[in-house]
Design a protein that fits this description.
Na+/H+ antiporter like fold, globular, 76% helix, mainly alpha
Length: 307
């Protein structure tokens, strides 16, 4: 499968969203309502279904946790270097953080299904169980601490209350509880949730396009560079090094290396928009990473295949 064939549909949807907003179709009032629907309904359902369906493979869980969490934490911490520059605001830092730690799971599923056809999807499902709660909790905490909220929540009790009330956290926790206890939803209800969740990606891409402002596309080059280097270069390099150090099996190594090299998640923009982050900066980071991934992913694929 050609990586360009995967990325072109993403570019086209972002471009469509940009032009729909530019020409006020269906109206300027439409987009804030759609963003709320994505944030409060579609993305939480997508996360809930992904975790609910993931197989609980205890033997893999610890190994995959080490290989995914350690590089993500290091990459996230490196983003604090941005505060050395006066051009990076607190809200912009929150977008840099999301850009460095979150992953586009949909693209990884497509690539892994091709690269590791027998066991790849099952391993990605386990990684989702690990990374979705981690990414959501850390991103929400950073946004609550550094975002431009009307009522800043600086004490720890308020921060944790914000986490508990967040729809993505509720979705992650609910899916995990049902999965652990082996509880099932009735098929009609699960299928309905699955259909709704699948719509999150195209609508999210349209919302990203609608939020782009190309007149200031490279407003903060340092923020885009630090976040994108962390996500597309540092994280996969650390993951590869860990696989070598720990002598990880080939198929597992391929999956975690590919997952680590994904551009940041589309949901990052919606989260930034709804929680007082730098939504414009987030849209720029997302778009830049998707474009840059057309150059970095082929290299990562070659490295993973040769492991």
């Amino acid at each position: 499968m050609n990586i360009i064939d995967i990325l072109i549909p993403l570019y086209l949807l972002i471009t469509l969203g940009f032009f729909l907003k530019k020409y006020q179709f269906p109206s300027n009032e439409f987009w804030p309502g759609m963003e709320k629907m994505i944030y409060f309904i579609l993305f939480p359902i997508l996360v809930f279904v992904a975790i609910l369906k993931a197989p609980m493979d205890i033997s893999l869980f610890g190994k995959l946790a080490i290989l995914t969490l350690i590089p993500a934490v290091i990459s996230a911490l490196l983003q604090y270097v941005g505060f050395l520059s006066p051009s990076i605001s607190r809200a912009t830092f929150s977008s840099m953080f999301q850009g460095a730690v979150r992953n586009n799971t949909t693209i990884s599923l497509i690539i892994v299904a091709w690269l590791v056809p027998d066991t790849g999807l099952a391993m990605i499902a386990v990684i989702v169980l690990i990374m979705v709660p981690f990414n959501n909790i850390t991103s929400v905490l950073v946004l609550l601490r550094y975002g431009k909220n009307e009522n800043p929540q600086n004490n720890s009790a308020s921060l944790w209350m914000g986490v508990i009330k967040n729809p993505l956290i509720i979705a992650s926790a609910s899916g995990l509880v049902l999965n652990v206890f082996g509880l099932k939803l009735p098929d009609p209800l699960l299928n309905t949730a699955d259909f709704l969740g699948r719509s999150a990606l195209p609508f999210g891409l349209l919302a990203v396009g609608a939020g782009l402002k190309f007149g200031s596309f490279f407003d903060n080059k340092l923020a885009i560079l630090l976040s994108s280097m962390g996500k597309l270069v540092v994280t996969p390099a650390l993951t590869y090094a860990l696989c070598i150090m720990l002598n990880i099996e080939t198929d597992i190594a391929k999956v975690v290396i590919i997952f680590s090299a994904m551009p940041t998640a589309i949901s990052s923009y919606i989260l930034a928009k709804q929680m007082g982050g730098d939504a414009d900066g987030m849209a720029q980071i997302i778009t830049f990473q998707i474009i840059a991934a057309a150059l970095t992913l082929p290299v990562i694929l070659l490295i993973a295949q040769s492991y």
